[in-house]
Amino acid sequence: MTPQQTEHEADLILDALGIQTRASLLDVGCGYGRHAMALTVRGHQVTGLDLSLPLLLRAADIACQSGLQINFLHGDMRTMQFDAEFDAAYCFFTTFGYFDDETNRKVVGLIAKALKPGGRLLLDMLNRDYLVRDLPARVWWQGQGCMVLEEVNFNYFNSRLQVQRSIAFDDGRQVEQEIRMRAYALHEVGRLLQHAGFRILELSSSAELRGRFFGSESRQILVVAEKR
Questions:
Q1: pTM over cut 0.85
Q2: 9-25: buried (b, 16+ CB within 10 Å) or exposed (e) per residue?
Q3: Which residues are bridge partners to 160 per DSSP?
Q4: 62-106: per-residue pLDDT in tens?
Q5: CB of 123 within 8 A of CB of 61?
Q6: Parallel, antiparallel, or unpaired: how do β-strands 146-155 and 71-74 relate?
Q7: CB neighbourhood size of 56 (10 A)
């Protein structure tokens, strides 16, 4: 991801969450912390949670080199213990949906518990109704120092996206990955958030199309919700 894209997404996060003054923010599934660092530079207090220790170590190194103080936590979003600690939270870049339905509901509930009353959540998800049009698929793409083959299928019984990824690195190494992810339709997202005590404030197709949603033509479901 380019620095310009990260800055653009940081603008979106703050605007969508209604953040105008210094705020405490929870980054759920922060990865290597690109959003957390961009928001910290802007004066906010960010806590980044992720299950991947290698990504967190990378994030901590970059933050240290940049002179940024960020609370990066090695933890599982399924067992978060926060209680009304944050002004807002975001789960961005399709980080949500990797568990069974009941556990996904639990995660949204734990995010709600972590927020102060009236706190907002920005949730970014793939749109099931968009995905099913073009699957199954087999695609090649070029990453940084590697070529990737992805074979993508969809299980219509449980609405799970299944990705078999084969990665060939320039140095000769080869890696196989399997990814399974729950894809939600819009009405399912509404039920998920309502069950956790949220009300939906805004629905978008993408960061570029704020406030507009085109059903099965929209690749993403980008939703802003407020804790009741």
A1: yes
A2: bbebbbebbbbeeebbb
A3: 155, 182
A4: 999 999 999 999 999 999 999 999 999 999 988 999 999 999 999
A5: no
A6: unpaired
A7: 21
